Automatic annotation (TrEMBL):
Organism the protein comes from: Glycomyces mayteni
UniProt signal peptide: none
Gene3D superfamilies the UniProt entry points to: Metal-dependent hydrolases
Annotated SUPFAM superfamilies: Composite domain of metallo-dependent hydrolases, Metallo-dependent hydrolases
Domain Amidohydrolase per the UniProt entry, residue ranges: 44-510
Protein name per Swiss-Prot or TrEMBL: Amidohydrolase family protein
Length: 531
C-alpha cells in the first residue's frame, strides 16, 4: 500500500498525549490523518479490532546514519514501530566534514556503524539531509530521520584531535559550523564528552556553542562526561551549560551505572526538577535495559587519544606510556571509563572489524585474555582490530532505570548500534520492551502513558508541529500493536529478532509493515527543523 486513501477501523486510540484510550476510526489521505470518528469511509479498510493505534514511535537516540541508506527492510526499527530516528548522536557523526576529516570520522565510529558500502557524497549537514531524501536508489529511506550537529565532528573539523582549548578563530569556526547546520535543518547539538575529541572541550566552549543553538530554538543533547564516578557532577555541568546558554537540554541515555551509583536516581531527578523549577527546559531519554554498549576504545584515557588513533599507536610503542595507560585502566580509572577501574569481567566483546578476531566475540575481556593481564590484552586487541571493536558493558542498575523512566520529562530511545557480530538487543527491542515488560508485565505505565513517552513527548522536545500525535492534519506516522502480546523478542544471545505484537506500521501514510511483514515502501526522508 502506498500513501493513499484508507481507513483504520475500530482501533483503541492512544493519541500520544497520555489521554485515556478511546475507540475510533482513523482516515488517512495523501499521507496525512484526514479524519477521526465513527464509521469513516475509505478506499481500503484495515480492521484494527483488538489493537491499539498510536503515533509512530520516535527514537530519540539512534545510530542509523548509514543503515537507513543501505538496509531496505530496517526491521530493527520498523519492526518495533519506530517511524522517526534522531541521528548525529554522541558528538560523532558524518557531517559536517571536509576531505581530510571525512575518512577520519568513518574510522572513528566504525565500531558503531560499521564500514558499510555507502558513497559518502556529502560534506555539510544539509547535503547529508538531502542524501537521506534521495535514500536507497533514489526512492527514499525506510523511516524518517532528524539530525543533531555533532560537537566532536565540528571540533575535529576546526582543530583536529588536539587536547587544548580552541583559539578565538577556531571557536568562531565551530560556532559558524553549528549555525550552518542549524540553518540547514538540524534540531540541535549533540556532544560526546567521554569520547575524543569532544571530551577535550571545557564548559565555556560548550556554553558558547549552545548559545548559537539557542538562537535557532534547538536543544543540547549531550552524552555527558561520566555515568559512573562523577556522574552527578557531570549532570550538574550539563544543566549549568543549558542555564548559561539559555538553551533547552535533553540528557542522552540518562543513566547511573556501577555500584557507586546504585539507588541514586532520586539525586539525578532532583537536579532535573530543580532546573525545571528555574525555567530551564530539561528532558531526557533512556533505553529499557541494564547493559550499555559502545566502542571498546572509548575506555581509554583521553590524553592517550590526543591526535587520533595514529598518535595512540605511536604512544603504545613506548613501554613507559603503555604502563601508564594500563595503570589508569586498572587502578585509578580513566575518564573514558567513567572514572571507574576496569571491570574486565563485565566488558563483553560484541563485535570486531577483523573477521579473524571473531573468536573473541561473546567473551568478556577477562575471558578473552586467558592468562594475560586483561588491560594488556585489551590494548593489543584494539590495535589488531584497527580500533573497530564494539563492547557490551554490564554495569547498569534496575532501580535507577525504573525510577528515571517514570519521570514526567522522560522519552524513549534505543541507543541502537546496528553493526557488529553481537549487538545489544535494545536496537531491535527497546520500544516493544517498554510496552510489554514495563507496561503490561510490571505495570509501571498505563498503555496510553507509555505511548506518550514514546511519541508525543519526544515530538514536543523536537518541536515538531505535525508529528507525534494521532490528530487530524498530522503526518500519518502510525503504529498498530496488540497490547496483550507486544514485546521484545531480541535477546543477548539472539539480538536480531523482530519484536512481537506489532502487525502494522505506517510511515507518511505508506504501509511499511503489513501483518508483521515488511513491504516495499521506502516512504521516509529527512525531517528538518523549521526555521
Amino acid at each position: 500500500m502506498t500513501a493513499g486513501d484508507f481507513v483504520i477501523r475500530g482501533a483503541a486510540v492512544a493519541d500520544g498525549t497520555g489521554a485515556p484510550l478511546y475507540r475510533a476510526d482513523v482516515a488517512v489521505r495523501g499521507g496525512r490523518i484526514a479524519g477521526i470518528g465513527e464509521r469513516l469511509d475509505g478506499a481500503q479498510v484495515i480492521d484494527a479490532g483488538g489493537l491499539v493505534l498510536a503515533p509512530g514511535f520516535i527514537d530519540m537516540h539512534a545510530h542509523s546514519e548509514l543503515a537507513v541508506l543501505t538496509d531496505h527492510d530496517h526491521l530493527a526499527k520498523l519492526g518495533q514501530g519506530v517511524t522517526l530516528e534522531v541521528l548525529g548522536q554522541d558528538g560523532l557523526s558524518y557531517a559536517p566534514v571536509d576531505e581530510a576529516t571525512a575518512p577520519q570520522m568513518r574510522d572513528a565510529i566504525a565500531a558503531w556503524n560499521g564500514r558499510l558500502d555507502v558513497e559518502h557524497d556529502w560534506r555539510t549537514v544539509g547535503e547529508y539531509l538531502d542524501r537521506l531524501d534521495r535514500g536507497i536508489d533514489g526512492r527514499g529511506i525506510p523511516v524518517n530521520a532528524a539530525y543533531l550537529v555533532p560537537h566532536g565532528t565540528v571540533r575535529m573539523l576546526a582543530m583536529g584531535w588536539d587536547d587544548r582549548p580552541p583559539t578565538g578563530t577556531e571557536l568562531a569556526a565551530m560556532k559558524a559550523q553549528v549555525a550552518q547546520g542549524m540553518e540547514e535543518g538540524a534540531f540541535g547539538l549533540s556532544a560526546g564528552l567521554s569520547y575524543t575529541p569532544g571530551m577535550y572541550a571545557a564548559t565555556a566552549e560548550l556554553v558558547e556553542l549552545c548559545t548559537v543553538v539557542a538562537q535557532y530554538g534547538g536543544y543540547f543533547g549531550p552524552h555527558q562526561r561520566s555515568y559512573g564516578a562523577g556522574a552527578m557532577e557531570g549532570y550538574a555541568e550539563m544543566i549549568q551549560i543549558a542555564r548559561e546558554a539559555g538553551c533547552a537540554l535533553h540528557l542522552a541515555h540518562a543513566t547511573l551505572n556501577y555500584e557507586v551509583n546504585a539507588g541514586r536516581a532520586a539525586e539525578l531527578l532532583k537536579l532535573v526538577d530543580e532546573a525545571l523549577d528555574e525555567g530551564v527546559p530539561v528532558s531526557l531519554d533512556t533505553y529499557p535495559y541494564l547493559p550499555g554498549m559502545t566502542m571498546l576504545a572509548a575506555l581509554l584515557p583521553s590524553w592517550s587519544l590526543a591526535g587520533g588513533y595514529g598518535a595512540l599507536r605511536e604512544r603504545l610503542a613506548s613501554a613507559e606510556t603503555r604502563a601508564r595507560i594500563v595503570h589508569e585502566l586498572d587502578v585509578t580509572g580513566t575518564d573514558g571509563a567513567n572514572g571507574v577501574p576496569g571491570h574486565w569481567d563485565r566488558y563483553e566483546i560484541a563485535g570486531v572489524a577483523d573477521p579473524g578476531l571473531r573468536g573473541y566475540v561473546g567473551k568478556t575481556v577477562a575471558e578473552a585474555a586467558g592468562g594475560r593481564r586483561p588491560a594488556e590484552f585489551y590494548l593489543d586487541l584494539l590495535v589488531q582490530d584497527d580500533f573497530g571493536t564494539g563492547c557490551l558493558m554490564h554495569v547498569g542498575n534496575e532501580e535507577n532505570v525504573r525510577a528515571i523512566m517514570r519521570h514526567g520529562v522522560h522519552t524513549g530511545s534505543s541507543d541502537g548500534v546496528l553493526a557488529g557480530d553481537k549487538i545489544h538487543p535494545r536496537a531491535w527491542g527497546s520500544f516493544a520492551r517498554y510496552l510489554g515488560h514495563y507496561t503490561r508485565e510490571l505495570g509501571l505505565f498505563s498503555v496510553e502513558e507509555c505511548v506518550a513517552h514514546l511519541s508525543g513527548r519526544p515530538a514536543a522536545v523536537l518541536g515538531l508541529a505535525d508529528r507525534g500525535l494521532v490528530k487530524e492534519g498530522f503526518a500519518a506516522d502510525l503504529v498498530l500493536f496488540d497490547p496483550d502480546t507486544v514485546d521484545a523478542q531480541s535477546t543477548f544471545a539472539e539480538p536480531r529478532r523482530q519484536a512481537a505484537g506489532i502487525p502494522y506500521v505506517f510511515v507518511n501514510g505508506a504501509l511499511a509493515v503489513d501483518g508483521g511483514e515488511r513491504t516495499g515502501a521506502l516512504a521516509g526522508g529527512a525531517v528538518r527543523k523549521a526555521a
